């Protein structure tokens, strides 16, 4: 007998946005035969509204999945779940979890919540938004049958803050490696991220403005004043190539395959999908020094905390020996921890 599982809290699938969307894309793609997924999708992001994808049923709602509308989007999704009688509801993020106490009164479905990366701590939110997200997080932890964290540092926080046991499930990254062909290596570093202060884009660009090494930086530069300012200031440097977001897996594959090293500036949000993806490419990685990144890489990366430490790290790095050893170590970690088959089995064990 199939288990019916609803997924709430993402833009939707096919994935064309971020980490949670890639998670659902691959959970549905790799799902066991006894799992029937239904995924709630934002109609704002899909001109062509399919009825299903990867065998999952799709339900569209006329709300944005991000920003303030995400609260209403998630609450309406949960409300509809009451009438659909799913066996389990997988909630990704805490935006709509204020509704969970009511949902638990009306539904017998098992609630599994991935609380994401401590959203309330992010610099981009106002004080009021941070209070709201912290409250939503507390309610999510209290009213969920299973709490999932994608990083041990977040799991430890949940235990210490709420006294609640939780499960650590990261992301797969093996989908990014579409071929095992090594290919040629070009003389550039690569960085891929959302252009936000907490991803330390300014530190990375300032460091490379003082270096001779080349960097290709991919991100949504035009989505914020922060991004537009950085794009305007650093586009003039011959060794810095600024590219708009790339969602084509094949294009990203070639950029990753041919780079000499990867710069990962994320300082918040737990285990980051772009980090676990590059780890499958056997590349040396320069990571911002924080507990999330150290856990994800098992202390096998090079770590920087400011412009000076990144600059000196790149200048003094021995790619011929240390780079090869680091790349191999990160690849071994990725194969052991960050494949979709492993992640799929972990999620399905809780349905």
Structure overview:
This protein has helices at residues 19-29, 69-84, 100-106, 127-143, 152-162, 201-209, 225-234, 249-258, 273-279, 291-297, 307-315, 319-337, 340-348, and strands at 3-8, 35-42, 52-53, 56-61, 88-92, 110-114, 146-149, 167-168, 188-192, 214-218, 240-243, 261-264, 285-288, 302-304. It has an eight-stranded mixed β-sheet with strand order 3-4-2-1-5-6-7-8, sandwiched between helices. It has 351 residues and is of the alpha/beta class. It has two domains: 3-169, 3-Layer(aba) Sandwich (Rossmann fold), CATH 3.40.50.2000; 174-337, 3-Layer(aba) Sandwich (Rossmann fold). The model has no long low-confidence stretch (mean pLDDT 93). Helix 6 packs across helix 11 (307-315). Strand 1 (3-8), helix 1 (19-29) and strand 2 form a beta-alpha-beta unit. The longest helix has 19 residues, at 319-337. The chain starts with a strand and ends with a helix. It contains 13 helices and 14 strands. The radius of gyration is 20 Å and the shape is globular.
């Amino acid at each position: 007998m199939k288990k019916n599982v609803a997924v709430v809290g993402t833009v939707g699938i096919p994935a064309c946005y971020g980490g949670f969307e890639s998670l659902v894309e691959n959970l549905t793609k790799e799902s066991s035969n006894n799992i029937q997924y239904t995924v709630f999708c934002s109609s704002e992001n899909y001109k062509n509204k399919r009825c299903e994808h990867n065998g999952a049923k799709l339900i569209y709602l006329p709300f944005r999945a991000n920003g303030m509308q995400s609260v209403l989007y998630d609450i309406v999704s949960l409300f509809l779940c009451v009438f659909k009688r799913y066996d389990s509801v997988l909630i990704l993020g805490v935006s709509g979890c204020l509704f969970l106490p009511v949902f638990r009164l009306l539904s017998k479905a098992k609630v599994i919540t991935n609380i994401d990366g401590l959203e309330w701590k992010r610099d981009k939110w106002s004080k009021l938004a941070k209070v709201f997200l912290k409250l939503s997080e507390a309610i999510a932890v209290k009213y969920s049958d299973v709490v999932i964290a994608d990083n041990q540092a977040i799991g430890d926080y949940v235990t210490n803050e709420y006294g609640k046991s939780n499960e650590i499930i990261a992301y797969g990254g093996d989908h990014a490696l579409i071929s095992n062909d090594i290919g040629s290596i070009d003389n550039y570093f690569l960085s891929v991220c959302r252009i936000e202060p907490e991803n330390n884009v300014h530190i990375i660009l300032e460091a490379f403005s003082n270096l001779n090494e080349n960097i290709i930086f991919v991100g949504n530069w035009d989505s914020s004043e922060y991004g537009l300012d950085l794009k305007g200031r650093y586009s003039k440097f011959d060794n810095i190539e600024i590219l708009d977001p790339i969602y084509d897996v094949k294009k990203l594959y070639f950029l990753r395959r041919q780079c000499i090293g990867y710069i990962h500036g994320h300082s918040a949000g737990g285990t980051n999908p772009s980090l676990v993806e590059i780890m499958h490419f056997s590349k040396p990685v320069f990571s911002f020094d924080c507990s999330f990144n150290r856990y994800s890489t098992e202390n096998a990366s090079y770590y920087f905390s400011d412009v000076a430490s990144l600059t000196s790290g790149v200048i003094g790095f021995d790619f011929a020996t240390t780079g090869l050893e680091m790349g191999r170590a990160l690849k071994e970690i990725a194969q052991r921890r960050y494949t979709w088959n492993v992640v799929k089995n972990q999620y399905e064990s809780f349905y």
